[in-house]
Structures are given as structure tokens and as C-alpha cells.
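Weekly modeling sync, notes
Attendees: S.R. (lead), two postdocs, one rotation student

Agenda item 3: backlog of single-chain predictions. S.R. asked that every request posted to the team notebook include the full sequence so nobody has to chase files. The rotation student volunteered to paste the first one in as an example of the format we agreed on. Action items at the bottom.

Example entry:
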Amino acid sequence: MYSTLIFLHSLTRWLVVISLTYAIYRGYTGFKFQKTFTRTDNAVRHWTATIAHIQLIIGILVYTQSPSIKYFWKHAREALRNWDVTFYSLVHALIMLLAIVLLTIGSAKSKRMPTDPEKFKTMLLWFFIAFVLIFIAIPWPFSPLSNRPFFR
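Predicted structure, as returned to the notebook:
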């Protein structure tokens, strides 16, 4: 089960990155060119948040099943000396949780803004901040924090 969860978590990150990139693009172009916030824009906002929440649920399942995480919580002092274990046990989990919270707040605030430019601006700002945090916390092959292959 753990290997399946890791695969799904690795695969779903691409959906999160793609949907966030597209939502940020729509937010930017909508704000810059004073477009109308359409049903499509609202759907992009909604589905981006939904995909991120699905990824969070998969991540929580990975977290509860991971041998490294179980080791960390049983031997925290010793495990803190191992950066990879610390990264996944604390850093990755907390940054990603913060990013999803910010994305959720941004989605809710954007939905409730009274004007179209405010909706686009709110979506752009909050989603961009969440994207930066997510990008930093993903273990890309080139990441200095911890690296994994593009697909596991």
C-alpha cells in the first residue's frame, strides 16, 4: 500500500503544479487585462483547490504509513540528525500544510470578492504564494533540501 501511495503522491504533484500554474496564469491575465471573472475562472479556482486537497489527503496517508516517519517519531532526537528524515517528517509536511491552508484561504476569499478585478487579484496573490511554498517543499531532483526523481 505504501508504494502505491507514494506513486499517487508523486503523480498528483504534477496535477497540483499544472493546475496552480494555470490558475495563476488566469489570475494574472484576468487582472492585467480587466477581464470578466467567468464560470471557467471560477471552475479553475475551485478545481485547483480541490486537486490540492486531494494531494493533501494522499500526503497524510503517506505520512501515516511511512517507515521513515514512524522512525522519526519513535527516535526523534536521533532522527533529527538525519536531514532527509527531518525534511519529510517536519519541513515538507509543515510547508505543504501551510501552502494548502493559504491556497484554501485564497480560493475562499477570491470567491467572495465583490468585483472581478478583486477576484483575479486575490486568486493570483494567494495562489502564487502557495505555489512558491509548494515549489520549495517538493523534493525535485535539483532541490538542495531533499531530492527524489520526477516520478517514483
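Discussion: group reviewed the output briefly. DSSP finds six helices and no strands in the chain.
Action items: rotation student to repeat for the remaining queue; S.R. to check formatting next week.
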